[in-house]
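Final report, closing paragraph on structural work. Over the funding period we assembled a curated collection of sequence-structure pairs, and we close with a single example.
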Amino acid sequence: MAFLNTLPGAVAEGLIWGLLAIGVYISYKVLDIADLTVDGSVCTGACVCAVLIGVGCPVIPAVIVAFLAGAVTGVVTGLLHTALGIPSILAGILTQLMLYSVNLTILGGKSLATIDPRTNRLLLNMSDNPKSIIVMIGIVAAVIIGLWLFFYTEIGLTLKSTGDNADMSRAQGVDVSRNKVIGLAISNGIVALAGAMLAQYKGSANINDGRGAIVIGLAAIFIGLSVSLKIKPNFVVSLIGVTCGGVIYYIVYNFVILLGLKTDFLKMLSAIIVAIFLAVPYLKTTHFQSKKTVPPIVKNTTGGEGDA
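Its predicted structure, as stored:
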């Protein structure tokens, strides 16, 4: 019964992190860039949204500004990588470090900004999980439809080709650097949007909200893709699967807490889940398939033994 009581909350929060995972999917799977800006940009979205709502800004404009702030963080990472030649993973780390100071400044030097759901009309809140679930389903659906339409435009198709083969795209006259900046802006904009939703759901934005976000996003991606690829491996189905991966992750997350696991070990659990899903394809290729392809030994015509 305790598990069933926590299920609506797990689904609502899982949808928020599933939205974040969609943003991570754009950078990690579409662009083929391991972007560590995520830990900072999700916090930026949460901080911007919480502070704007706190000073009387309506919720919708606050969410839009949070999305744009996240997009700017992606542009910074993209320019560090493309204009200055810094490797993408280091560019993400540098932006993430800068964002800690930026987020602290947004919060006015404090570590926490609260949102009172009684005095503000929020899109979602943990006190009303059914409403939160419905709102998040609508937001996730709108984001998936928007991405589906965008990636079938000329820019979207060239962005996909950039991730598939940057050298070939460059040879075809595609501006690879521009595409990487655009892709990282979209990715981190969606991540910041998830941060804005998380701040409303929890009723606060904390300077440490984004810590470990990239690991949760990757866990949701691998869980979701392991399920969705068995159905129909296309772009929309993959995004839906990634969202469901976030929900599954948080249901398991809550179940593990109910079993008595200390919260200190939850980040380690996330890392282990990601490590398992990363290792499975490699183990299948190197161990299981290699055993199947070992040629049988047969006797040759001279009476000795030889390979078939």
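Strands lie at 112-114, 204-206, 297-299, 305-307. The two ends are 61 Å apart (CA to CA). We thank the funder for supporting this effort.
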